[in-house]
Amino acid sequence: MSPRGTRARRTRTSKRTIWLAAGAVVIAGTGVTAVAVGGGSEGGGGADEAARPAQAHTLALTGKDPKKRELPRTETQLFSLVGVSWEDSADEFEGTAQIRTRGAEDGAWTDWRDLDFDIRAPETQEGDATGVRGASEPLWVGPSDAVEARVVAGGKETAVPDALRLDMIDPGETKGGKGKGKGKGETGKGQENGKGNGNENGKGNGKGNGKTPAEPGDSGTAAPDPSQSGGETEPSSAPEQSAGPSSEPTAEPGSPSEEPTAPEPSEEPTQDPTQEPTAEPSAPVPSEEPTAEPGGPSEEPTAPEPSEEPTQDPTQEPTAEPSAPAPSEEPTEEPTADPTTEPTAEPSAQPDPAESTTPAAPAAPAVVSRADWGADESLVADPSDYLDKVDAVFVHHTAGTNSYECADSPAIIRGILTYHVKSNGWNDIGYNFFVDKCGTVFEGRAGGTDKPVRGAHTYGFNGSSAGVSLLGDYENGGTPTAAAKQAIADISAWKLGLHGVDPEAKVTLTAAADTRVWKNGEKATLNTVSGHRDGFGTLCPGVALYSALPEIRRTAGASEYAG
Fold first, then answer.
1. Which GO molecular function, any one, fits this protein according to its record (predicted)?
2. N or C: which end of the chain has fewer CB within 10 A?
3. For the whole model, what pTM was predicted?
4. ∠ at Cα 75 (69, 79), nearest 5°?
């Protein structure tokens, strides 16, 4: 242990935390404390009456040997993510911590797995708050009901940390399921209802959650690949699809009053104005109904037949315009004439919806919101802090398993949120964004994806950067998929572009703490898209992902989301 000295702790008052239950249970002779950490705050996304809240279980790791702690095989309550933590976050642990777990479904014990110690409390008031603990990186192990652990001090350490404990997190369930999808396209869309026809909040219809954030899952075709094989590049197509729905509604309403009546009946005949659907929709209607055409010049070009004309509600006065061109012969000519004339003739109706959407907002990658992955907002006590500018993006990996299914991604992120708050003692999840191997992007720390939210991801450089973490371990054999690399490039290009930063450039940042790489106050010249190890002494984001950063930077520079 290398204590860095006593630091003043500032008490952070919790404004919204709701404790549902707190009780101690004794299992196999070992005291296990279980606390329900979710309560369903007002307006908080993810909490629901029908949902099971996340829970944090802890096991004290005690013993007589000051240099070693061991926990024999011990049955526990259900958990899916595990780590170790200790009392003082100022103490850097040097040594090894290994765990093995028993699967809740098959009862099989895993091999020993190492925990990483590259996580540090924020270099701000958040990191100095009372209750902040030192901790390992959390490890996703999947549903488990028993654990075995051993921790040994190493290097210059002569003793394990004080108040050492094992932290086990059950990510709970959100309305809609346990987070066990089929690993297909839907898994890349943040769905985890086990059926592949809705998202984990019970919204959606198999194509996402009914919101653009679900669309990145189009890369979900890569989702079946639990391994890192398969270089799906589909995530890049998802954002394009998200634009579709936004433009249709604006183009369709030729007149605001007609929308409710026209879209409902999908059949062409029923769309004819006051005339009966029985009136031949093919020949008679178009010939005497030039009025049907003006309603939808935007749709005419795609289907020149009269069948398309009935769909356009002709009850409006636009009958004057179509009357000029011969309605009988021009399914192909009128579309071209109408769009050009109508905008000038009726600026109040047509131009507004159609042209406001196109130039309105800049393109942005689809991101699964906190509400959609089930974040329990009652855990977040204080509002987010904001930076003046995001000058760089640091790429991380979660150092967990690579065998997860993309349907489990929301549950993994819920587990990390609970761990960062209940085990580390932070205010919120540390990373600004998460990406899974299917190329789905998830919102991380609260405060607005398009805002310069200050995260807790790269010690010493949190004050000038955003953090993007790829789910999985890319130091020990894992290989990032093409879909994941594309998603990291797109979200980085977009985030930096909001601040006029080139993702292929370099930037000079000032270290706000000693990071094992840079001294406090030292000027560090880094790539605007850098790896965690560039700023802090760590192996993160793993050799495979770090080696892919040059490619990711080039892809970001060419991304449609680059500013």
1. N-acetylmuramoyl-L-alanine amidase activity
2. C
3. 0.64
4. 90
